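To whoever picks this up:

The parser on our side crashed when reading a file containing two proteins. I've narrowed it down to the boundary between the first structure block and the second sequence. Both blocks are reproduced below exactly, byte for byte. First block:
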Amino acid sequence: MQLLASREVAGAADELAAVARALAAPAGGRSLTELLTSIRARPEVGTRRSSVAIAINDKTRPVPHEYLLPPLLAQLEALGVASEEITLIIATGTHAPMLPDEFSQIVPAELLARYPAISHDCDATDLVSLGRTRRGVEVLTNRRFMEADLRIVVGNIEPHQFMGWSGGVKSAAVGLAGRATINGNHALMTAPGSELGHYDDNPARQEVEEIGQMMGVDYAVNVIMNDRREIVHALAGDPRAVMRQGIPLAREIFQVAVAEPFDLMIISPGGHPKDINIYQAQKALGHATLAMRRGGAVIWVAACPDGAGSKGYEEFMADPAMTSHATVLARYAAEGYRLGPHKAWQIARDASRVRLRFVSDMAPDFARHLLLNPVADQPGVPPQAQLTQAVAAALTELPATAHIGVMPWANATIPLLVK
């Protein structure tokens, strides 16, 4: 049996200090001091106070804002930016906007008491149009972010199944974009190169870089974390420079060499919030099947307390004709890309290659409706009992020389088959 997991690395002894050091030695571009000096020299700014907007991730991303934000906010204030001129914008992408009483789930209460905070809405009527990308996608984005003099993104760098890597401008370029913009960009997920771990040759990611440039994202503060969600590396500065420095560091942690495909893989997205719903947890399946023998078995363990996580995905699967992964793939091919249904396609693509068993807190009938093959045949079966049953059943199907793997943090693991 092989454990496929991130490399064991120690977190920073002082995480706040690690972020402060990154701010003091920015990667590429200009420092915050230089950026603000340049902004204040603009004729249109004149004597008025300069404003700052900071894009932060929503509750579906395990970003340690309690360590990222205080040093950044303290430096901005030390440079003369008033607290009321610094707006935290929760970058929800196409997720439902967070309600104000939910903000404390991701931002410390003492910061919310001091700095204005709002949630993005990808369907808002006042989004700003910035023109079109080279591929023709119209860039619609958050008005409040665009009205700020200084635009900052905060997030983490980790593997992404078709964007290659999260981090950099993505928190704003996707997180603060309009639905049509995100749809247009994510349609590239089936393009060659839009793959896990790819960056420079990844068309989806490079369009995100183009969108970030059109938005004028000035500065990024990103971290790379270990499996215990401790900060290992902190980086700040020009967003693209942060990515170029961060990706090799992240790859050292998250990439695992695999000598031969697996016959059985037991996977978990990595706990909350990575398994908050199927929409997020699917990434574990997508990563795991890259290292699987066709026809092998996957036991997918994901709590999914919020269910599917996408109304569009649920509506697509509500079609009575969606009775198999083959019918899902055929309908998707006929209709083309749509956000929400794309999740059905991703699951069908991966599940059609393996024998899937699903362990979850979800209602079994609902999981069957999504073609997830739940282990439980009725509600209330404890996940541990489901897992035991799934493993026992899978073992009876394996050859004597079976290659078995375990991916406890599959959402953030890159299995690389070494041929």
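<<boundary where parser fails>>
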Amino acid sequence: MPSLPKEVELLIGALGIFLSFSVFAVLQEDVYKKAYGGEFFASTFFALAIERGVNALTAFCGDKLLGSSGLTIPYLEIFNSGISQMLAMAASNEALRYVSFPTQVLGKSCKMVPVMAGGIVLSGKRYSAVEYAQVTLITLGVCVFNLFGKKKKKKGGGDSPLGLALIGASLFMDAFTGGLQDKVKLRTKELNPAPSGPKRPSMHESMLWTNLSGCLMALLLALCTGHLFSGLRFCRAHPEVLRAIIIYSLSSAVGQNFVYFTLTQFNPLILTTVTTTRKIFSTLFSVFRNPANSLTSPQWLGCIMVFAGLIGDILRKMLPSKPPAAPPPPPDSADASGEPAADEASPSASAPPAAV
């Protein structure tokens, strides 16, 4: 295929992510927040089994059509990360039953908070004052948003402590997923020691095994919790719910392909910019399409604080960083140069994105 101008490629990737995940967000909100015959859908693991299954099937077709990496795949590590990712989504989806969609999106935007905390506690990482300021701004924004919300008594409206706790559990699992994805990278290098060639599975291989493990675990949990049969009964009584689940699952699968396309053609910073903008758009669209999601003035301030922190993180990464000063050569060596260490923070070493 002839190469396209970078501007056109970026437009394709951004439009694909916006359209796919906007459809996903709208239909997911309808499934969990609308009343059907006076009832609300509550079979979270049933819906997740369908979504993960559709994603896995899409990835399987993509792998067969486009080919695999030829690497030895660390199946166990990918399965573990897929299960962790599915549990994070389960908590996030379940939270939609108890909080508004804008609250869920803003809460999930705090993902960098547990990641930073985990880095400090588990890895002894250090962060700059600017990074601490960004996390503080985002956290304060979410607190302002939730503390000054309108009190609603209507079922399906308002933000309950249980919903906020579920968002917290989802964030915890997101941080855990990041560590498991790091293990996938390391194990892939161990299983494929050749100095040349790809060092991680192809996008469809990662997508296939991650979603397959999530699908199997979601199906098992759906059986154990009764969500499988309650979900089937609900969808039999309200077929429009099953249609919405299938369509937003397809949107998720298509969106993941655009995520990987953007990541491959550009870099994680561009991808983060696109996905953050998409979250802002989805939040505003949800507020304006659903009167139940109308915000108070302090809540608008909280929104601005959260997204200002996220955009600030993007701008900080766009600024060129100063290279570390080169150490002086040893006095008794004529040539002390060697191969530079691999940059673990480089785009090529980054783990596949867990979600958008």
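After patching the parser it read the second block fine. The chain is about 70% helix and 0% strand. Strands lie at 35-36, 39-40.
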